[in-house]
Amino acid sequence: MIETEQKVEDRIHDAQALRPLVAVIMGSKSDWETMQHSDEMLTRFNVPHECRVISAHRTPVMATDFSETAETRGLEVIIAAAGGAAHLAGVVAAQTLLPVLGVPMESKALKGLDSLLSIVQMPAGIPVGTLAIGKAGAINAALFSIAILANTRPELRERLRQFRTDQERQVREATLP
Questions:
Q1: pTM (two decimals)
Q2: Residue 68 belongs to what domain range?
């Protein structure tokens, strides 16, 4: 087993010890290089979560089962990442009432523009919150999930407030050569 697979399996195991509130799903194992940034941010905020590979195209029954059981399993937010014909977020959003945040993966052919357009162009009535392409999108999807959860968790809201304060301080203290 390669290290990346082990890290994903470890995160799933850790999430099973606590009830996961956020799911980070991706269409391919190769998306982990980018989506590990969502995992790291959620871990930094101590948000119980799970990370899984689920393909809208190669494992459609698995995608349906995941979507239909997400709410009863206690999930509150789903982050769905995919590249190219990036239909994962839309397929999941069509089958759950939970908030779904789509993260477009950078692709070789069009640098992720194809992924972005696949996720952002959802029909009215099936919303997907679409984030930036790549690493920034992965980080912001985690932070957006944290903000959603923080609406009912004052301690998490305070950690998010402190994160923003720390960011501001770092910018103010930055010096140029």
A1: 0.89
A2: 3-173
